[in-house]
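FAQ: What does the model actually see?

It sees only this:
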Amino acid sequence: MPRQTLSQRLHEVAEASCRVFIDKGYRRTLVSDVAEELGLSQGAVYGYVESKEALFHLAMVFAISADRIRELSIPVPTPPPGGTLALLQGWAPSSGFPVLATALKRRRPPDVRVELTSVIDERYRLLEDNQRLLSLIERSAQDLPDLSDLYFQHWRRDQISDLALYIRKRVSSGHLRAVPDVPTAARFIVETIAWFAWHRKRDPDSAMISDEDARTTVTALLLAAFVPEAESGSGSSAPLSSRTSKPPKARSGASG
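And it is asked to produce this:
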C-alpha cells in the first residue's frame, strides 16, 4: 500500500480516536471502539498503532497539531512511560499567556480597558483554538492521575494564580473595581471564558450564538464588571483609589 495512503488513513484513525477518547474517556475506550467508529476490524487498527497507549498518544499528537502525525512511524509505537505526558509538557510553553505575563510586569497600564481586553482575548482565543486538545485532556484526566496532576494542579492552578495576581494588582492601584474575593473573581473570568469559548460548543441550546457574538459579548460584560465607570470613559492610567472603596484583603491561593 503506498505510503501516502497509509498517512491518510493514519489521519483518519487519529481523528476517530480523538472523538472516542473525548466521548468515553481513557479507561472506557477500547481499540475496538475506534475500529467500530472507522468501520474497520480491530486487527486493521493495530496495523496503525501498536496498542491502546499508542492510540492515545496518536490522538494527543493529532489534537496538538494534525500536521505532526506525518512525523510518526506506522504503526505508531507504544510510547515509553511518561512519553505522552512529556508531549503535553512540551506543548505547554506555547500555550502560555505572554500578554498576561507582560501586564504583570507593568506597574501601571496606559489604558486598563485595552490591557484587560487583551488579557481576556488572549485566553479566549487559546481556548477557542484548542478545543479538541483541551477536551481530550480534560476528559482523559479523570482516568489518568499524572495527567490530572499536570492539567488541574499545575496548568489551571498556575494560570488562575497569575490572573488573580493581576486582578489584585490592578484593584490595589484603583484601576479595577474592588471585589469581595480575588481568587473567586479570577475563577469567574476563567470559567466565563471557558464556557463561551469552548464548552458552549457542546450545548445544543447555544447553537444560535455565533463565535463572534460570544467573544464580543463576553469581553464587553467582563469589562463592565471589572472596570470602574471613570476608567471606562478614558484612557487615563490615573488610579481611582480616592473614588473607590478600599479593596478587601484577598485570600492566598488561586482556587477556591
